Amino acid sequence: MPIRKSGDHYTHQMHGAQFHSYVAPSRGSRQLCAWRTELEPGNIGAPHTVSHEEVFLVLHGSPVITLDDNRVQLSVGDVVLVPESATVQLDNPSDSAAALWVTTSVGLTAVTAEGGTITPPWTC
User: Fold this and answer.
1) Tell me: the pLDDT tens digits for 6-35?
2) Is residue 121 a part of any domain in this protein?
3) How many domains does one find in the chain?
4) pTM of the shown model
5) Which residue among 60, 86, 99, 101 sits deepest, i.e. has the most Cβ atoms within 10 Å of its Cβ?
6) 107: in domain
7) Three-state SS sequence of 73-120
8) Does 5 reside within a domain?
9) CATH, residue 104
10) How far apart are CA 94 and CA 35, in angstroms?
11) CA-CA distance, 40 to 54, in Å (whole number)?
């Protein structure tokens, strides 16, 4: 069914963050993926280069994004377009949790700073 209630998601953890997957091929989507990312206070993310565009919408908190060496503190309601082939890192240096809604297209992969390739399980 294309309607997802708030508790109807799969949760994955990576790099100190939680990813709550709502839309992905495993959930019936053919083109889009969407999930909620939750960052605990003090979380420092891992830089990675993405294969597809992503859109981030800050739901709560004050996360910091580094996008191709441009570091910006975000606020609730801010939207970031992460371009294809951009290097991105998402941190939460504050003392309260942060959450973002993220959308991308099916097939997203990421290359880590160490050169490894990740296919995020919340996009499959």
Assistant:
1) 888 889 999 889 999 999 999 999 999 999
2) no
3) 1
4) 0.93
5) 99
6) yes
7) ECCCCCEEEECCCCEEEEEECCCCCEEEEEEEECCCCEEECCCCEECC
8) no
9) 2.60.120.10
10) 22
11) 21
Q: What local confidence, expressed as pLDDT, does residue 1 receive?
A: 58
Bridge partner list, 89: 66
**pLDDT computed for residue 4 by the predictor:** 84
In a domain, 98, yes or no: yes
User: Residue 3: its pLDDT value, please?
Assistant: 86
- CA dist 95 and 108 (Å) reads 31
61 touches 73 (CB < 8 A): no
3-state DSSP percent of the chain in helix, strand and coil, to 5: 5, 50, 45
- The pLDDT value given to residue 6: 83
Residues 39, 34: Cα–Cα separation, whole Å: 16
Rounded to whole angstroms, the Cα distance separating 66 from 80 reads 11
Domain with 34 in it: 11-114
34-73 b/e (C-beta count within 10 Å ≥ 16 → b): bbbbbbeeebebbbbbbbbebebbbeebebbbebeeeeee
